[in-house]
Amino acid sequence: MSTDLKVVAQQPDKELPTYLAAENLGKATFKLALPAIGEMLLQTMLGFADMAMVGSLGAASIAAVGLSDMPMMTATSVFAAISVGTTALIARAIGAGKPAEANSIAKQSLIISVLMAFVFTTLGLIVARSIIVLMGAEPEVIPLSTGYFKTVCLGLPFMIITIIMSGVLRGSGDTKTPMYINGMSNIINIIGNFFMIFQSRVWDFTLFGKQISLFIPGAGLGVQGAAISTTFSRSLAGVIILCLLLKGNVGVKINFKEKFRIDLVIIKRIFNIGIPAAIEQFLMRFGQLLYSRVVASLGTVMFAAHRITLTAESISFNVGFGFALAATTLVGQYLGAERPDLAEKSGFSSVKMGAAFMATVGIFFFFWPQIFLRIFTNDPQILDNAVWCLRIVALSQPFLAGVMGFAGGLRGAGDTRRVLLVTMIGIWGVRLSLAYLFAIVLGYGLIGAWVAMTIDLIIRGSLLFFRFKSGHWKYIKV
Hints:
This protein is mainly alpha-helical. It has one domain. 76% of the residues lie in helices and 5% in strands. The protein is built from 16 helices and four strands. It has helices spanning 25-55, 59-95, 99-126, 128-134, 142-153, 156-171, 176-196, 223-247, 264-296, 300-336, 340-367, 369-373, 380-394, 397-413, 416-441, 445-470; strands at 2-3, 199-207, 210-219, 476-477. The strands form two sheets. Strands 1-4 form a two-stranded antiparallel sheet. Strands 2-3 form a two-stranded antiparallel ribbon. α5 runs parallel beside α8 and α11 (340-367) packs antiparallel against α13. It is globular. The termini are close together.
């Protein structure tokens, strides 16, 4: 990726697709964001049910899943970053009216997906226990967490395909199909949990005055049952999205009947955007992993409180994610159509919409935190700590919207290097250092760690705002 100091020509008279017309900017933002929001909210609600099921098994089970999820999220951040490169390039191609180029980018992205899947799955299975130990798991949690991690790794290839191919669809402006596929996957995961986690049991209830006993079969596998259900649902999602792209039932088609070859030019373009994004996401996730390691050192109960607070916060976070996706797609498509003015407006529009919602949810987090937290546990010790954490992070919700939305817009423009720099400053320079200082050195514990997180979000949101406002991203060639 290189920058060109020559100003990109703005062509206000250039004919745009109807949905990209200036007067339809707000409508286009909602059209892209709402399916993604629906997908993430469904995922959140089902995540609540998932955590509630696991949470009923006790603090050790909550910690086992949480300790496994953090390194998994660190790894998958790399795939999501490659998806960013794919989304940005396809958005530019679609905006420029070049569908054949978009198809070629999608094909090369699939090749990358398969190669990455093989490498990361193999590594995950080999080093599973070592990762869990490094995460600071207590002795009774290690076997539970290791077994969960290994099983989830088996579904990693399909998860990688789903993440990167979803980026293909979103770059083309199709956010509905990923919503349907991932929503279906999450529903299947919950149904699977219902039968795999718990023992067979008899449910007695009254219907129309009659006493009815219903036998519900169950495998009784506990945490391992949750892992099996997760792996199956992710695998199914990967197969479905791949079939749709191969058949051409969506806006982009991958055709392997044509001459097969690896296009190094396209792959280089994807990596020019994706590698800085991958480094950024890896450093962010690895930093979050180390942050979780600091929290885990406070004990199983504190980590359980930390985990359920993060899950509760995802109500707000996932809506912001939907508007960030809209910013990524619209900024890329407007730049492809040579309308940097509308690209800037679309970025600010997405952030404003996201911030309005997240600030509103933040009010509920602050004044009525137990409404969200009691979904997962009634343990008073866990709740007492989680309540204060949710109140603290409520203050940062508008800044979190800025972090997500402005970063999404910059990624859509291909300005992933600057997002990388801001992430390094925030996560490594602010969050980790302050978390260790507040939680460990000064002895404020979990509350100190969440204060550090909030300060990080405020600083990153401000830095990304100034970068997007500067407009330098408009002149980046991809």
